[in-house]
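## retry 2 of 3
previous attempt timed out at serialization; input unchanged, resubmitting
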Amino acid sequence: MTGLRQFAEDRFLPFVGASSLAQQSKLYYQAGWRMLKSMPVADLRLDSITTSVADTLELKGTGSNQNCALRTLRRMLSLAHEYGILQAAPRIKLRKENQRTAVWDAKSEETLLKLAPQPLKDVFLVCHDSGMRPDEVISLRWDDILWNKSLIFVREGKTRKSTRHVPLSDRVRNALRVRAQHAKSEWVFPSRNKKCKTGHITHTAIEKPFRKARKDAGLPKELVLYSARHSFATDLLDRTGNLKLVMDVLGHESVTTTQKYLHPALKNVADVVNQRNEGRAAEVVN
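## retry succeeded, writing output
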C-alpha cells in the first residue's frame, strides 16, 4: 500500500499543480503538505490513516493553520479514493477556529501607518479600503487598476466568487499613483528578490515589518493585517445596511461566511432600544 509521503510527491502535488484550482487554493494545499510532511503521519500507509489518527495529530499553530493541514490531508485521501487506491476515505474532523474579533479603528490605523514602511503601508491601505485579502493585494498587476472607474479588478482568490471588482478609494488612488511613477514591472508590488518565482512580493515579506510596526506602535497582537478586511466589511455594512453588497465585495459565496467578518459596534444599541420604547408605558420595579 502506498504511503502518504509517496502519494503526495507522486500524485497529489502534481495533481494540484496541473489542476484548474485557483492559485490561492494551490498555495493552500502546498502549505498544508509542508506541515504534514515533517510529521510521523507522512510515513504512514494511506489505509492506516483513520479518523482517530487524524483527530490525534499534534498540529502546531492556530486553529486556522491546523485546519490547513487537515483539509489538505482530507483532500489527499479523497483523491486516493478517486484513484482507486483506497476503498473509502475516512472522515477528517476539523479543529475549532477562534473567530477574529479585533478591528482597526481610526486611531490604531493612524498609529500603524505612521510607523509602517513601504510596501507594507500601501498594502495595508489597499486591504483596509477595498476589503481585499492580503494575498490578493500583493499579486495585483497594474492592468488590474481601473483608474477611470475607481475600481480594482481581483483576478482570482479562494472561491469562485473571488474574481470581482472592489472600490479604488481616493487615498489608495493617490498612493498607487506615486508608486506607478516609478513602476518598472507589471506588478504593483514587485519582488526585489531575483529568485522569486511569482515576480511579486510574498505575504512573508510584509509579515515581519508588520509585526515590528505593530509592536513599536504598542498595538495588541489581536490586530493582524487581515483584520483590515474585517474592518472594511463592518464599516461597509454599518453605512449601507446591504449584506448582499458586502458579500459581493468580499467575494463570499455564503452569508454565514460573511457574518464572521462583521463586528458591529454596540455604542448605539441603547439609543435603538430607547427609540423602540418611546410611547410605551414605563414600569418601575421596586
